[in-house]
Specification:
Structural class: alpha/beta
Strand order of the largest sheet: 3-2-4-5-6-7
Distance between the termini: 16 Å
Mean pLDDT: 92
CATH class: Alpha Beta
Strand content: 35-45%
CATH topology: Cytidine Deaminase, domain 2
Number of domains: 1
Oligomer: single chain
CATH architecture: 3-Layer(aba) Sandwich
Helix content: 10-25%
Largest sheet: 6 strands, mixed
CATH superfamily: Cytidine Deaminase, domain 2
Length: 133
């Protein structure tokens, strides 16, 4: 089970809402499954159905995390008009087999939908998420 602080969930949702109708992307950092940091990244594709984290921002973030002895725990992005389920593109482009992939859906009326997955070899396994105060 993955535990995510409510304050970080709220930041992810806000990021997704600000980026709409484009997809947002970002990283959650910490150690093992302990999520302590939120790092929004720019979607350099600026598209509604695809994302690519800005490579320069990504490199700078990864250097910073290494220096702080933290790691990438989760990668999140939004689906502005569809359900929080990995697309074929999401499955084929996942590179971090130990990271949780979070997908936020904005395609709902007044309700946050967020799902988490581990993605290995193009296959997604749903993961349990708990939000803590």
């Amino acid at each position: 089970m993955w535990v995510i602080p409510r304050v970080i969930i709220n930041k992810i949702l806000g990021h997704a809402q600000r980026c709409a109708p484009e997809e947002c992307v970002g990283v959650l950092s910490g150690k093992d499954q302990d999520i302590t940091g939120w790092h929004p990244l720019e979607n350099s594709l600026r598209e509604t159905s695809r994302f690519l984290a800005d490579p320069k921002q990504q490199i700078e973030l990864f250097k910073k995390l290494r220096g702080e002895q933290k790691e990438v725990v989760a990668i999140y992005h939004s689906h502005p008009a569809s359900s929080p389920v990995p697309s074929e593109l999401d499955l084929s482009q996942s590179e971090y087999q130990n990271a949780l992939y979070l997908i936020v859906s904005l395609g709902t009326e007044g309700c946050l939908e967020i799902n988490g997955y581990l993605i290995k070899d193009g296959q997604a396994s749903p993961e349990s998420l708990t939000i803590k105060d």
